[in-house]
């Protein structure tokens, strides 16, 4: 029987995602730490393309700020808007990066990424790692179209998608092995070809496109680094 979340309204789905990430913050951060090398590899491919000083960057799904937000905030004069749906994760980020927040290099915005708003051409880059995959498929294209308006001509997008299509899947007790749990996690994805098309339709020219970054048996991702067409 299909899980009720698969047919739930978007706001209920997001509420459950936030609740689950709040509940498993420590487990998730410990689980993902061994994969930081993959994230850092792609982030370091982005950095040379950013302004030498004063870059404005939006990070979708910033989590606890390690390693992405910390690296982006280390750029000279950078201002990073760190968004996450989990209040628990952003609380950890605020503790970890308190000095960067005090210096005005990092600000946090809690909530659904679909509720964010920026002016056109406001950002030099948007980073979305393991985050857009939590949106229902019909919202993913709209999110990319908004990003295409927010990023200035010549700016950049670094994002990953699932390596295979899924209309939506739910896993109960994710990362809570050996424990009965009502916490549920949700993901969805288009095919790599469709995800690529959505990025291009949002106004980006793809510079890097790779399948890899495996985080478990049979789990891989489409990694995209793309430049906004001027």
TrEMBL record:
Which stretches are annotated as coiled coil? Answer: none
Kindly list the biological process annotations in GO that this record carries.
methylation
Concerning Gene3D superfamilies, the annotation shows:
Vaccinia Virus protein VP39 (3.40.50.150)
InterPro entries named in the record: Methyltransf_25, SAM-dependent_MTases_sf
Q: Does the keyword Calcium apply?
A: no
Sorted keywords for this record are:
Methyltransferase, Transferase
Q: Name one GO molecular function term.
A: methyltransferase activity
Task: Return the Pfam families for the record.
Answer: Methyltransf_25
| Residue ranges constituting the Methyltransferase domain according to the UniProt record | 57-155
Q: Report what the protein is called.
A: S-adenosyl-L-methionine-dependent methyltransferase
Natural source organism: Mycena rosella (Pink bonnet)
Q: What is the lineage of its organism?
A: Eukaryota, Fungi, Dikarya, Basidiomycota, Agaricomycotina
């Amino acid at each position: 029987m299909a899980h009720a979340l698969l047919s739930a309204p978007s706001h209920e789905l997001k509420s459950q995602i936030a609740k689950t990430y709040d509940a498993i913050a420590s487990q998730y951060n410990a689980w993902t730490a061994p994969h930081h090398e993959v994230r850092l590899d792609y982030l370091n491919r982005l950095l040379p393309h950013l302004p030498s000083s004063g870059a404005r960057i939006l990070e979708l799904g910033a989590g606890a700020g390690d390693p992405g937000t910390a690296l982006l905030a280390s750029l000279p004069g950078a201002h990073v808007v760190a968004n996450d749906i989990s209040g628990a994760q952003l609380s950890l980020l605020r503790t970890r990066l308190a000095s960067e927040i005090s210096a005005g290099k990092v600000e946090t915005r809690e909530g659904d990424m679909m509720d964010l708003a920026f002016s056109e051409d406001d950002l030099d880059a948007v980073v979305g790692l393991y985050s857009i995959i939590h949106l229902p498929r019909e919202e993913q294209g709209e999110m990319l179209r908004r990003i295409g308006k927010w990023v200035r001509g010549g700016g950049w997008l670094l994002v990953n998608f699932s390596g295979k299509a899924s209309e939506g899947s739910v896993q109960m007790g994710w990362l809570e092995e050996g424990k009965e749990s009502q916490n549920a996690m949700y993901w969805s994805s288009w095919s790599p070809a469709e995800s690529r098309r959505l990025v291009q339709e949002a106004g980006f020219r793809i510079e890097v496109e790779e399948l890899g970054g495996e985080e478990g048996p049979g789990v891989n991702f489409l990694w995209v680094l793309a430049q906004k067409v001027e």
